[in-house]
From TrEMBL:
Span of the signal peptide: none
Protein name: Thioesterase domain-containing protein
Family the UniProt entry places it in: Belongs to the thioesterase family.
Provenance organism: Amycolatopsis ultiminotia
Thioesterase domain boundaries: 9-108
A Pfam family it matches: Thioesterase
InterPro entries membership: AB_hydrolase_fold, TEII, Thioesterase
Length: 124
């Protein structure tokens, strides 16, 4: 992915539904989006998994049609915790949450539990 041309990146941005096609007519918008995607790909390419596990529950959420992070990839997060693991998939691709944000937020809050909700309500 890192060796893609500008046109290949443009096609990827459109395929993933990151921004509307009209927005990509602006070279500034295309450069902004592509520079972040390249950085994300470089980060992923350099990632080396650790054998260490966290001691907190994990929730992995994704879209059932996500080609970048399919449900079977989400399930791998279970190996990174010594506690409970929950995986939840929603209908959609990589940006599934755009159309389901209230449901996704409820899922995260439910997984975090009432203690997390109380902590967010306290002033710092």
């Amino acid at each position: 992915m890192l060796g893609r041309t500008g046109e290949q990146w443009r096609a990827e941005v459109l395929a993933q539904g990151i921004v509307d096609e009209e927005m990509l007519d602006s070279p500034r918008v295309l450069d902004f989006v592509v520079s972040r995607l390249r950085a994300n790909c470089l980060l992923a390419a350099r990632y080396r998994p650790s054998a260490e596990r966290v001691s907190c529950p994990l929730l992995a959420i994704g879209g059932d049609a996500d080609a970048l992070a399919p449900p079977e990839l989400l399930a791998r997060w279970a190996a990174h915790t010594s506690r409970d693991f929950l995986s939840k998939t929603y209908s959609g691709g990589h940006f599934y949450y755009r159309d389901q944000l209230p449901s996704v937020c409820r899922e995260v809050l439910a997984a975090a539990g009432s203690g997390a909700a109380r902590r967010t309500e306290r002033p710092s």
